[in-house]
Amino acid sequence: MTSKKQLKIRIRARMAKTGESYTAARRHVVDRPEPATDGAWTFHGGRHPGSAAIAAVLANRGLAVGEPMVFLAGGGIGAGYILWEFKHDGSRHLTLGFRNQWQYHDRWTAKTLDRLGVGFTAHTTSGAKGASAALAAELDEGRPCIVLPDRYHVGYWGLPESLDGYGGHPVVVYRSDGGDVLVDDRGAAPIRVPRTRMDAARARVPSYKNVMHVLNPDGPAATDDGRLASAALEGLRDAAEHLSAASESFSLPAWRKWSRMMVDRRNAKGWPKVFADGRGLAGALLSMWEGVEPVGTDGGNLRDLFADGLEEAGALLDLPLADLAEEFRRIHGLWHDLAEAAFPLDVPEFARMRALTARIRESLLAEGTAGGGAEEDPRAAAAGAGAVLPQDAVDGAAELGELRAAVDRASPVGDHEALFAGLSTRLAGIHRAESEAVAALRDLVRERGRG
Questions:
Q1: What is d(CA 57, CA 52) in angstroms, rounded to the nearest whole number?
Q2: pLDDT of amino acid 331
Q3: Cα(91)–Cα(105) distance, rounded to whole angstroms?
Q4: Which of 92, 182, 228, 281 is 20 to 30 A from 162 (CA-CA)?
Q5: CB atoms within 10 A of CB 138
């Protein structure tokens, strides 16, 4: 029998090597893992934060709508690329969007639930006291809430202060316990967060300050085959239209732009110019690896999740989507290859950073923080964790922060030009592949419309 310690080591090693999410890595290592529970709440894991949160609430209300169908109903995949430069600490951070309307969490949630036929109440109270009271009232009535806390302020990801206000992703707050709330963030155990910390995290980002969605999935609409088929078709049409747009920030041309920026020596945002001295490059490459791979906080490039949704939709709609699903699985592999080329294991510093990232994720998502797993530690506060991060993750976050600062000062990458040229070529190939796949999807949806 595999000991718990051995199991943790194997899951972490797989996450670091493959870039898989905790849920996927655990599924490969553990034969038929049983769902974990906390009282009446069952943890279902998941990949993409928004669709996993909706699927978790529905599943805990007895409605079997899987994450792939929720994701597809919301329009499936998206595209987006922004390279941020911060003068206060000299850091560079890459923001990648892989979900439809990735920049609008609340709009995406509303349209997804509408298509699924799931009733909901959206709270948009801007005042901190009102937002806190609304969350408490819903939890007191036994209704789980989907909220959007800032990752640094919520504490349990172990992020450095330099990422304060960078944003976050949807999580489920499913009950309160004294001065704490308990969170499901695609793991297998409850994450305990002080209520005051959650309130502050929800209020941090102005664009979705204190937004909260409470699902009211009464009635059979969300699991009716006709409704699911309609949601799937609307999602496919949305995906085809959205990804056919001309935007270089929020649609497929973003990948072509990114490919150009990797080798553009004249543009102020070109990588050869931004990283001329190598400073901040390692941090940007880490954010690329975390953004593309499922081990990251946003679920990765999500092309595999979209493929799962296409397979389900094909059966519901009697559409030939199997080949297209297979193509998006291949494209998922192209993204993985890009991440491996950007942040390879054969660079010792990168290998260690990958191992530490996997350690933090596995520790948190496997053990949660309820039940005395968190310790008071000065390094926890420095990492934004307070007393809600497991001690093993605190140690990992502290070492990761120190290592990142060191490699950002002196890049371990030897030939920057060769790296940028190789990544540019890979991105151009991804852009071609996704453009062709989306054109095929558009033709299928149009054919269905004529039918």
A1: 9
A2: 98
A3: 26
A4: 182
A5: 18
- Contact residues for 273 (Cβ-Cβ < 8 A; gap 6+): 264, 265, 266, 267
CA-closest candidate to residue 331, choices 311, 354, 298, 302:
302
Tokens of 226: 């006709």
348 CB-contact burial (10 Å; exposed 0-12 / middle 13-18 / buried 19+): exposed
What does the alpha-carbon distance between residue 154 and residue 75 come to, in Å, rounded to a whole number? 28
Q: Helix/strand/coil (H, E, C) string of the chain?
A: CCCHHHHHHHHHHHHHHHCCCHHHHHHHHCCCCCCCEECCEECCCCCCHHHHHHHHHHHHCCCCCCHHHHHHHCCCEEEEEEEEEECCCCEEEEEEEEECCCCCHHHHHHHHHHHHCCEEEEECCCCHHHHHHHHHHHHHCCCCEEECCEHHHHCCCCCCHHHCCCCECCEEEEEEECCEEEEECCCCCCEEEEHHHHHHHHCCCHHHCCCEEEEECCCCHHHCHHHHHHHHHHHHHHHHHHHCCCCCCCCCHHHHHHHHHCCCCCCCCCHHHHCCCCCCHHHHHHHHHHHHCCCCCCCCCCHHHHHHHHHHHHHHHCCCCHHHHHHHHHHHHHHHHHHHHHCCCCCHHHHHHHHHHHHHHHHHHHHCCCCCCECCCHHHHHCCCCCCCEHHHHHHHHHHHHHHHHHHHCCCCCCHHHHHHHHHHHHHHHHHHHHHHHHHHHHHHHHHHHC
User: What is d(CA 368, CA 195) in angstroms, rounded to the nearest whole number?
Assistant: 16
> Could you tell me the sign of the dihedral formed by the alpha carbons of 413, 414, 418, 422, in that order?
negative
Contact between 399 and 391 (Cβ < 8 Å):
no
Tokens for 160, please give them: 């450095």
For the chain, the straight-line distance linking the first and the last C-alpha, in angstroms and rounded, comes to 56
Strand partners, 93: 84
Q: What are the mean pLDDT values of the chain's consecutive 10-residue runs (451 residues total)?
A: 76 92 86 84 95 96 93 97 80 90 93 95 88 95 96 88 87 95 95 94 91 81 78 96 92 97 96 93 93 94 98 94 97 98 96 94 85 41 50 85 90 92 98 98 82 50
- Residue owning tokens 């800032």: 150
Which structure tokens are listed for 430? 């991804």
CA atoms of 213 and 135, how far apart (whole Å): 10
Return the structure tokens found at 112: 């997804």
117: its two tokens: 């036929």
Residue for token digits 């990283």?
Answer: 275
